[in-house]
Amino acid sequence: MISLRDVTVSVPAPTADAPDRVLLERISLELTESRIAVIGANGSGKSTLLRLLNGLRAPTSGSVLVDGLDTVKDAKRVRSLVGFVFTDPLSQLLMSTPVEDVELSLRATVRDRKERTRRAQELLDSRGIGHVANQSVYDLSGGERQLVALTSVLAVGPRVVVADEPTTLLDLRNRLMLRRILAGLTQQVIFSTHDLDLAREADRVIVIEYGKVLADGDPTDAVAAYEDAMVSS
Ligand SMILES: Nc1ncnc2c1ncn2[C@@H]1O[C@H](COP(=O)(O)OP(=O)(O)OP(=O)(O)O)[C@@H](O)[C@H]1O
Questions:
Q1: 25 CB burial (10 A radius; 0-12, 13-18, 19+)
Q2: What are the residue boundaries of the ABC transporter domain, all occurrences included (predicted)?
Q3: Best CA proximity match to 91, nearest among 60, 59, 51
Q4: CA distances, 136 to each of 6, 13, 191 (Å)
Q5: Which residues does 175 contact at the CB level (< 8 Å), separation at least 6?
Q6: CA 44 – CA 3 distance, rounded (Å)
Q7: Are 94 and 85 a contacting pair, CB within 8 Å?
């Protein structure tokens, strides 16, 4: 389980005489549900919140614990427990082809190189993208790239998948496909989205507004609170 304990994230102001800019303020959450959506306006702090969950960002004060492990002190272990899928998969595909990228993720668990390649190909096949295994990642479609990124993340064997607006860059067909895949994962999935229909499918919705939790809980109620806030602002 992931717990945020009184977490504040702030960054220094551009000029020395101005106060620090607070991106998230005193957030405490226990993230237990299987599917959790984080919604909010542009710049409200969703990505900042998600990046805290696997230690990509450190709290300025407070702490984030993953199964009791501190995301700063136990960063390496936390990264293996919590996989992160970025909005733009190109920013996380480190190798030039899908099969190499998935092989890289398997390095810690599969020592034999041939076996690693076989396993990577098998994982790509299982996601329906085995036919692009040896193609340059730059030549893949947005949907294929997103699936490769997800396959690489899952190959590490995380307990939790955190996805930052994973469907934003995709067309309708790929969006529906990714939604189906995310829905079928056995891992806990915590994702941000501007797609309110997708958010309503979650078990819990957290609404972030100006770096604070505006609403949290039942998806229908939380989405309604967000819509009210947007209309009245
Ligand atoms: N390292 C940083 N330094 C300064 N400001 C930052 C930094 N990281 C994020 N911010 C600012 O913090 C605010 C929240 O950013 P964040 O990316 O978390 O928003 P978001 O809710 O994910 O937005 P969007 O829906 O547009 O993706 C933004 O105004 C952003 O410019």
A1: middle
A2: 2-233
A3: 51
A4: 44, 41, 27
A5: 167, 195
A6: 20
A7: no
Task: Report the distance separating Cα 147 and Cα 126, nearest Å.
Answer: 11
Q: Distance (Å, rounded) from C-alpha 171 to C-alpha 173?
A: 6
Q: pTM to 2 decimals?
A: 0.93
pLDDT of residue 103: 94
94 in ligand 1 pocket by Cβ < 6 Å? Answer: no
Q: Is 40 in the pocket of ligand 1 (CB under 6 A)?
A: yes
Q: List pLDDT tens digits, range 63-104.
A: 999 999 999 999 999 999 999 999 888 888 888 999 999 999
pLDDT of the residue at 233 = 73
Residues 79 and 66: their CA atoms lie apart, in Å, by: 10
CATH class of 2-13+21-232: alpha beta
Ligand 1, atom 3, lies closest to the CA of 11
Domain boundaries, the chain: 2-13+21-232
